[in-house]
Amino acid sequence: MSRSAHPAGPRHADVLPEGHYSAPPADLNQLDPKVWSRTVGRDERGVVTVGGIGVDALQREFGTPAYFLDEDDFRARCRAWAEAFGKDADVFYAGKAFLSRAVVRWLKEEGLNLDVCSGGELSTALSAGMPAERIAFHGNNKTEDEIRRAVEAGVGRIVLDSFQEIVRVAHIAQALGKRQRVQIRVTVGVEAHTHEFIATAHEDQKFGIALAGGQAAEAVRRALSLDGLELIGIHSHIGSQIFDMAGFEVSARRVVGLLAEVRDEHGVELPEIDLGGGLGIAYTSDDDPREPHDIAKALSEIVTRECEAAGLATPRISVEPGRAIVGPTAFTLYEVGTVKPLEGLRTYVSVDGGMSDNIRTALYDAEYSVALVSRTSDAEPLLVRVVGKHCESGDIIVRDAFLPADVAPGDLLAVPATGAYCRSMASNYNHALRPPVVAVRDGEARVIVRRETEEDLLRLDVG
Asked: What distance in Å separates the CA atoms of residue 262 and residue 452, rounded to the nearest whole number?
């Protein structure tokens, strides 16, 4: 079903304002499978479906805005990562991307481990039955309470992020009569090709202990000297939304160099190396992510080659995909409320969500795709900016995109690839209610994180 076009601002044939856009696609009704989850398609009415259910039916049952997560796609991606790395490596899902008890159960069933970085994430993992030995605990400033809870639970590893934390974890483990397995996070001086705030391996930032100046080597000395710690390896993470493997090659070379120093000074070959996560996904058709098998092959070859050159046995590799698993599996569904053309500039399409459910555009200048999903349209492409309902001029969801020129109030729009970080970073700005997360599979949909209510907000406000 389609509507006739109406005048609403610049189209692709006009002079367009500067922005972050490519040429409009040949067919706005087409859904790029690189960007959308695997069970997404259009039915005979032109309505987009996921897991066999139309978005119109999903809106009627769950409302908007809402995140819809393709469970089959999530599980398939878990299996793909596990199979790519095999039994001689470990895959830790990075829970910060998105975590719920349902997700923890899926990870457990599909054979993945879990990386957490707060007491809340640890509690979620344990409450959903993830074995503690399959949990890694990250964070640059873990509290004593968080460390104690992790050690008591028996987490498989704690990643040490500072000299103070080395002592802190050792003392807590000794007091509990335990010897905690740990890795040391090092910053290797690799500048990832990403936004400044999500590049994590250059020296001028809060994470890790620098290789430069011998600091990481000193951290190893201290960790090996303390009875409460069992040092099992070195951890490195170079950033996020990375497509180029060159940074991992430099990082692996420098980490293996540290392993060689440890062997030469202490006579110890540390058995593990964790290269972190950060692999990118397709937010738009211009993005070209690598498949898990290619990533596994490249990382294995890099580490093996560097270890052979250093005369070291190849350590067990760990990786931490979060976004790369959950990011592509979900989309956010919105209803259009206002269409506002600004002559000679652009058209603003306002929806019923915004920066409270997706802060990444405002925070990182992130780029997204968007599609009209409640119908098809033969109208010509219209350059739009999809914005939210919050009292901020920076409340932008999709900075520049093409939608059919007949987009109108009441239409449903979907933004794909919102499985990672959107719900995790959601807020109550303007007292907005955080949207639900709904898992869809084989014609059935169920809430796995419910929508907040005004009663929830008032319950926290003790007056």
From this structure: 51
Give dist(CA 393, CA 203) in Å, integer: 34
Q: Rounded to 5 degrees, what are φ and ψ at 435?
A: -70, 165
- Cβ density class 260-296: b for 16+ within 10 Å, e for less: bbbbeeeeeebebbbbbbbbbbbbbeebebbebeebb
What's the whole-model pTM score?
0.92
Contacts of 213 (CB under 8 A, 6+ apart): none
- Inter-helix orientation angle 246-266/215-225, to 10°: 50
How confident is the prediction along the chain (463 residues), in pLDDT tens digits per residue?
544 444 444 454 344 556 666 678 889 999 999 999 999 999 999 999 999 999 999 999 999 999 999 999 999 999 999 999 999 999 999 999 999 999 999 999 999 999 999 999 999 999 999 999 999 999 999 999 999 999 999 999 999 999 999 999 999 999 999 999 999 999 988 766 544 433 444 566 788 999 988 999 999 999 999 999 999 999 998 878 888 888 888 888 999 999 999 999 999 999 999 999 888 999 999 999 999 999 999 999 999 999 999 999 999 999 999 999 999 999 999 999 999 999 988 999 999 999 999 999 999 999 999 999 999 999 999 999 999 999 999 999 999 999 999 999 999 999 999 999 999 999 999 999 999 999 999 999 999 999 999 999 999 999 8
Residues 6+ apart with CB under 8 A from 264: none
Coil/strand/helix, residue 66: strand
Residues with catalytic roles: 391
- CA distances 224 to 78, 182, 216, 218, 316, Å, are 34, 10, 12, 10, 19
User: If 0-12 CB within 10 Å is exposed, 13-18 middle and 19+ buried, where does residue 350 land?
Assistant: buried
Work out the number of other CB atoms within 10 angstroms of the CB of residue 189. Answer: 15
Question: SS3 of 59, please?
Answer: helix
Q: How far apart (Å, rounded) are the C-alpha atoms in residues 438 and 445? A: 6
